[in-house]
Design brief:
757 residues; mainly beta; 22-stranded antiparallel β-barrel; 6% helix; 47% strand; transmembrane; tonb box; Beta-barrel_TonB; membrane
Length: 757
């Protein structure tokens, strides 16, 4: 379906709504945060900004516990895919998803923070987030680079995820509780089991939770009934959390989250099916082994530890301190079958590989509330230290490499995925000054980034010859990020906002230290060098919009909300690999005229993305309706292959997306049921044929979901809960544009039954 008549769609979107969020925002948001709505008033996946409007609600979308439970999604990216401006990239295969916000889809452009720990996996052609949805309480998406709390990247936005707490699960005044849950999905015969125990002391000073869930499933099925091969899952996950109220004003939270998965999988988890074996291969190796020769066995572990201390004395408005430390580590070990080819996988991590990504984030911030004459201030100051380290190694046992010292006899770091470390220190200052109904927010952040590569074990990628340009030494980057925001509450129901921000990101380890081979002048790549001369990427971002909310619109107990946002992002000196036209005026015949030690990456000419979002919501005691619409456009100066050539579309811009929903509630019976529709326009603004970053054009499609839930009432049925969700109700065959032509999943019935004690 192509969304051709924009005016008609906007009118349609305004007739419905998005669900309310259930998150009490923190930090700066304390002064004007939205109040939490009852769970019965929410609709999954499409959210707005709450009952109250304020400067802290601009550009934010939320998923609360009820939204997450109703979707029964298999991964966090699928949850977020239903939000306006947020789109899933990749496949439905386990660990095969990344996120795209407003056209930004690189891992460094979409920051993910879980309980204060950074999560981001940049391994080549792999997914980036591995978080079990069953452990998640709520998610906040802050779109665009308009927050000072996190620096060095995040052009697309920041996703903040909070895991469950004991107090969220305990019923009434109970001091001890437990949860048992079973879920089944028909598409892939998935069987999920969950068990949790939680409790608190009588005085409320301590509460703790231990949560365990296990996903097991066969391969997913496409709409035509064919298997989506190697999408089976066996993934246990666990969460343990302890809250200690040291005093009335101090809270210490300690948590750990663990996840693991093991399965045969294609090298590129983001991609489509592995190529089928030939008849000759099946005859030689047998059917099972013939298929396994095309893939690899992947063992993955994901670990997170966090500690938070909050000090907020009620009689000291100048003090609201948060100190936190987060540790995140992801390991992947890939190994191909013993019968696989030994010389065919140089560009896909060889026949065996090891990758470990470790992140540490320490943060200290304070918020002060005070007045100066007629002005009310919310002053925030903070500092962060972030350490990112990656260790990589692969085994490439070709007949040449295992005998060649320049290949280190087959053991070396992938030249396109080098090892290294990046450290960052940032400080920020922000003051939200209110005068009457107007709030002006001014902020500035300073970041200092250092990076250092690990010399490759293979001398052909770590040559001492100057013509190779292999330099793994330290690189430093620093700069300021100013931001300015204006919020005006024009009436009791209508508000207007405008924001402008400038920020930057340092080159990643991959961009700085990727290299190509160099043995001699006649045995070397055209672009052998590491890229130590890169400048930072820069962005100037602006957004304007309006918000409207009203209680008692048609009846005494209904509520309606609307948010409209326009945004534009201008990126300069964007970083990309050196492709096609290597230098100005270059042609393939000029290879001998190229300068020596030409870098593998370069700064390009920049690009622009812009778009529009509408989110609407209407809710009564027994009925709710909603809609959200997002539309994006992007244009690159020159092209990725030829910065001096013709302009081309930004390939990561998502098609138009309209989300709609209708439903009813019977609070006395504990019943909620409804329909959700996702309508995606076609995407024909694609790169020319032959471009390495080209995504094939996609057709529009519509997907329909039905959902229902029942919560037991009364002493006998209390704590019992059942949910049914039917995805892709009409078994529509579709291929999402950002998923590189990967076929979507067929009809899927999801049923869960839980009992809390």
């Amino acid at each position: 379906m192509k969304i051709q008549n924009t005016a008609m769609v906007l009118a349609l979107a305004a007739a419905f709504s998005a669900s309310a969020f259930a998150s009490q925002t923190k930090g700066q948001e304390a002064s004007d945060a939205a109040t939490k709505k009852p769970a019965e008033s929410t609709l999954p996946a499409i959210t707005v900004f709450g009952e109250k409007t304020g400067s802290a609600t601009v550009g934010r979308s939320y998923l609360d516990h009820e939204d997450i439970e109703r979707q029964q999604a298999g991964n966090v990216a699928a949850l977020l895919d239903t939000l306006p401006g947020v789109d899933l990239t990749g496949s439905s295969r386990p660990s095969g998803q990344t996120l795209n916000i407003w056209g930004f889809n690189k891992v460094q452009d979409v920051k993910v923070i879980v309980d204060g720990a950074p999560k981001g996996f940049e391994k080549y052609r792999q997914g980036s987030i591995f978080i079990e949805p069953e452990l998640v309480k709520q998610i906040e998406v802050n779109k665009g680079p308009h927050t000072s709390m996190y620096g060095n990247g995040g052009f697309g936005g920041v996703i903040t995820i909070e895991t469950k707490d004991a107090k969220d699960l305990l019923q009434g005044d109970a001091q001890l509780g437990a949860l048992l849950k079973y879920s089944h999905q028909t598409n892939n015969h998935e069987q999920d089991s969950t068990a949790a125990v939680y409790g608190r002391t009588e005085d409320g000073r301590f509460d703790a939770l231990v949560y365990f869930t296990q996903r097991e499933a066969d391969d997913l099925r496409k709409p035509n009934g064919d298997p989506f091969r190697f999408s089976a899952i066996d993934a246990p996950s666990s969460l343990a959390k302890l809250n200690i109220r040291l005093t009335e004003d101090q809270l210490l939270t300690l948590s750990t989250m663990q996840g693991r998965s093991s399965a045969w999988a294609p090298f590129a988890a983001l991609g489509e099916d592995a190529p089928a074996p030939t008849d000759a291969e099946i005859k030689k190796f047998g059917l099972d082994e013939a298929w396994k020769r095309k893939v690899l066995y992947r063992d993955q572990e994901d670990t997170t530890y966090t500690a938070k201390w909050r000090f907020s004395p009620s009689d000291q408005p100048l003090i609201n301190v948060l100190a936190s430390y987060g540790y995140s580590k992801t390991n992947q070990h890939d190994q191909r079958s013993a019968s696989a080819s030994v010389g065919s996988f140089l560009g896909s991590l060889g026949n065996e590989s090891w990758a470990t990504y470790t992140d540490k984030l320490a943060e200290l911030r304070n918020e002060s509330l005070f007045t100066s004459g007629p002005f009310a201030h919310v002053l925030s100051v903070g500092t962060q230290w972030h350490d990112h380290q990656r260790d990589t190694l692969m085994y490439y046992p070709s007949s040449t490499a295992i005998k060649d010292p320049s290949y280190n006899y087959g053991y070396f770091q992938p030249y396109y995925m080098p090892a290294g470390q990046q450290r960052g220190l940032g400080v920020y200052l922000q003051d939200a000054v209110s005068y009457g109904d107007v709030t002006l927010t001014a902020a500035v952040r300073y970041d200092h980034i250092t990076a250092e590569g690990v010399p490759n074990r293979a001398l052909r990628y770590n040559s001492p010859l100057p013509a190779a340009g292999h330099d793994y030494s330290e690189a430093r980057f620093e700069g300021f990020s100013p931001r300015l925001g204006l919020f005006w509450k024009a009436t009791n129901h209508a508000s207007f906002f405008a924001d402008i921000s400038q920020t930057w990101r340092a080159p990643t380890i991959d961009e700085l230290y990727s290299s190509e081979y160099y043995v001699s002048a006649d045995k070397g790549s055209s672009t052998p060098g590491t890229s130590r001369g890169l400048d930072v990427e820069r962005i100037t971002a602006a957004r304007v919009g309006a918000m409207w909310d009203q209680q008692g619109l048609f009846t005494d107990n209904d509520s309606a909300q609307l948010r409209f946002t326009l945004y534009q992002n201008r990126v300069a000196d964007n970083i990309g690999p050196r492709l096609g036209v290597l230098v100005a005026g270059y042609t393939p015949a000029d290879r001998d005229k190229l300068p020596p030690a030409l870098s593998n990456y370069r700064n390009l000419s920049g690009y622009k993305t812009e778009g529009m979002e509408i989110e609407t919501f209407y809710n009564t005691r027994y009925f709710f309706a909603n809609a959200s619409l997002s539309m994006q456009y992007g244009r690159r100066n020159g092209s990725q292959r030829d910065p001096w050539g013709s302009d081309e579309p930004v390939s990561s811009v998502a098609p138009d997306k309209l989300m709609m929903g209708l439903g009813f509630k019977l609070p006395e019976q504990g019943v909620t049921a409804g329909w959700q529709g996702k309508f995606v326009g076609e995407q024909d603004k694609v790169l020319p044929v032959g471009n390495v970053y080209r995504l094939p054009p996609s057709k529009g499609y519509g997907l329909h979901t039905l959902f229902a839930s029942w919560i037991g009432r009364g002493d006998v049925l209390k704590g019992l809960e059942a949910r049914l969700t039917i995805d892709n109700l009409f078994n529509r065959d579709y291929q999402p544009y950002l998923s590189e032509g990967v076929t979507g999943v067929g009809r899927n019935y999801k049923l869960s039954i839980s009992k809390s004690f």
